[in-house]
Specification:
The complex is a heterodimer. Helices cover 21% and strands 36% of the residues of chain A. By secondary structure, chain A is of the alpha+beta class. Chain A has one domain: 2-Layer Sandwich (Alpha-D-Glucose-1,6-Bisphosphate, Chain A, domain 4), CATH 3.30.530.20. Chain B is mainly beta. Chain B has 2 domains: 29 residues; 291 residues, YVTN repeat-like/Quinoprotein amine dehydrogenase (Methylamine Dehydrogenase, Chain H), CATH 2.130.10. Helices cover 8% and strands 50% of the residues of chain B. Chain B is built from 1 helix and 29 strands. Classes of the chains: A alpha+beta, B mainly beta. Chains A and B meet through loops of A and loops of B.
């Protein structure tokens, strides 16, 4: 499928595979971290299970293929039925780190394109630190984007997803579920 | 091969001696203002798109020694052949900034339309070329007066630029046309377009100047173009989302943005020799004139990593500003033989 230089309607962007953008709009990065009162391997058991992203409140359902093998994919479906498809590109159980990229995205969920993300768990004594970082472009890849698809909208959405996701992860693990 | 290694070792020894001497001179004159005729130490000028700035990294110590505000989300960079000026593109601000390297000051800003990203300096005439990502054109301008000599239409999303050593030809990687355009500098006319891999982004001439290599972000590989026959003659598989290429020690080095690695290949046989882990999201890459080191700007890690060419390992890094890209020729080389 050929990449177009001028992404137009949001629906069109939703159908595009991950954009191999090296430039056009400015790429953004975002990092969020949280400390969880649990040993690292317990946290990794949740975060490192690529087949299940139910700890992320953005999604109601995960449909996954391929387990934790590089190339595995997961369809993440929100309560309203919107979908994001992710592919696992790196997995290191020893370092407790995984990296995935987004293959398809409904910009109603996250107005981004060319999105890749890392989740890393680091032991901190009997506790753990989880770092979630991502790089992405706004959803509208041409000049003069509409406000809901511009750089600020992209960053705001990722900021909210990471914060809510990490807090939910912490609550889930510390709550002993 | 042995002979080459010996030559490289001797050159490296001379370079180290030269760098030490220059380092001593630099600290001695730290209090005095730089005057005409004084040499500049080897430095890397790193565009930091996130902090809107330009970092000056001293390569003898591998430390950032200055950071100046540029604005407009700087990304592309070219250094004049004499190392005196740097030309920085700001795609969001839509301007080209001319920086005086010695005094580390902004001399002027020249407005350029659309999305200026790729930039190159003519090594013979000093003319500067800026690629407009959105309008499919390259602009030739005088960096002192800002006067535009002319524009040439090339393919879609022209990205990386390269100029032949004789100053006669200008090449652009036309990312969304999957081609390299060759432009006659004197007439500013496009001579031909050569199909390469998918989404060529960075383009670099090899040290002989006989071939151009493109980093193809869409096909995760490198295309080799013969400039005499003007045809693609080879391909090197790279990592995920390659960005740019540099040459040292008869090897090519290509940054793989999503792999977090640099792929090393034999520049003649095109065989992949090694994949080196570097900082997160490596992008701009350049070779030190001595051939001893390769420098890589790591966008997510906010570092400039140094690869030792002899051992093909990362032997140091400097912390720079946020989101460094250094897309283009970003090294100010130490003068030889000092």
């Amino acid at each position: 499928m050929s990449l177009r230089a001028f992404g137009l309607a949001a629906a069109f962007v939703a159908l595009m595979p991950v954009a191999a953008w090296a430039h056009g709009p400015t790429r953004q990065k975002y990092i969020d971290t949280i400390e969880i009162n649990a040993p690292a391997d317990k946290v990794w058991a949740v975060v490192g299970n690529f087949s299940d992203m139910s700890w992320n409140p953005m999604f109601a359902k995960t449909e996954a293929k391929g387990g934790n093998d590089v190339g595995a994919t997961r369809d993440l479906i929100s309560g309203s039925g919107s979908k994001i498809v992710q592919k696992l590109v790196k997995y290191d159980a020893t370092k407790m780190a995984l990296q995935y990229e987004v293959m398809e995205i409904d910009v109603k969920l996250l107005p981004v394109s060319g999105y890749e993300s890392w989740l890393t768990v680091t032991p901190d004594g009997s506790k753990s630190k989880v770092e979630w970082k991502g790089k992405f472009y706004r959803a509208f890849v041409n000049n003069d984007p509409p406000p809901e698809l511009n750089d600020d909208a992209a960053l705001a959405a990722v900021t909210i997803e990471y914060r809510k996701g990490l807090e939910a992860l912490k609550a889930k693990i510390e709550g002993g579920k | 091969m042995l002979k080459l290694r010996t030559v490289l070792k001797r050159a490296a020894a001379a370079s180290v001696a030269a760098l030490c001497l220059l380092g001593a001179i630099a600290s001695a004159r730290a209090e005095a203002p730089a005057g005409a005729g004084q040499t500049v130490d080897a430095e890397a000028l790193v565009t930091n798109q996130g902090s809107d700035s330009l970092s000056f990294v001293d390569l003898a110590t591998l430390k950032s020694v200055a950071e100046i505000k540029i604005g407009g989300k700087p990304a592309g960079i070219a250094v004049s052949a004499d190392g005196a000026k740097a030309f920085v593109t700001s795609p969001e601000g839509k301007f080209l900034t001319v920086v005086d390297v010695k005094s580390r000051t902004v001399e002027r800003r020249i407005a350029v339309d659309g999305g200026p990203l790729g930039v190159a300096a003519n090594p013979v005439s000093g003319e500067v070329y800026v690629a407009d990502w959105y309008s499919k054109t390259l602009t030739a301008l005088d960096p002192i007066t800002g006067a535009v000599r002319g524009r040439v239409e090339v393919g879609s999303s022209p990205s990386g630029l390269a100029v032949t050593a004789d100053g006669a030809l200008l090449l652009s990687a036309d990312r969304d046309s999957d081609q390299v355009s060759i432009v006659d500098v004197a007439s500013l006319k496009a001579i031909t377009a050569i199909p390469v891999g998918k989404r060529p982004f960075g383009i670099t001439l090899d040290p002989s100047g006989a071939r151009a290599f493109t980093a193809n972000v869409g096909s995760d590989d490198v295309t080799v173009v013969d400039l005499k026959t003007r045809k693609a003659v080879g391909r090197v598989p790279a990592g995920r989302l390659p960005y740019a290429i540099a040459f040292a020690g008869e090897k090519g080095f290509v940054t793989n943005q999503s792999g977090g690695t640099v792929t090393v290949f034999d520049a003649t046989t095109l065989a992949v020799e090694k994949t080196i882990e570097v900082g997160d999201t490596p992008e701009g890459i350049a070779a030190d004139a001595s051939g001893r080191y390769i420098y890589v700007a790591c966008w997510f890690a906010n570092t400039l990593d140094r690869i030792d060419v002899a051992t093909l390992t990362v032997t140091g890094q400097a912390t720079v500003g946020d989101a460094p890209r250094a897309f283009g020729n970003f090294l100010v080389q130490a003068p030889a033989g000092k």
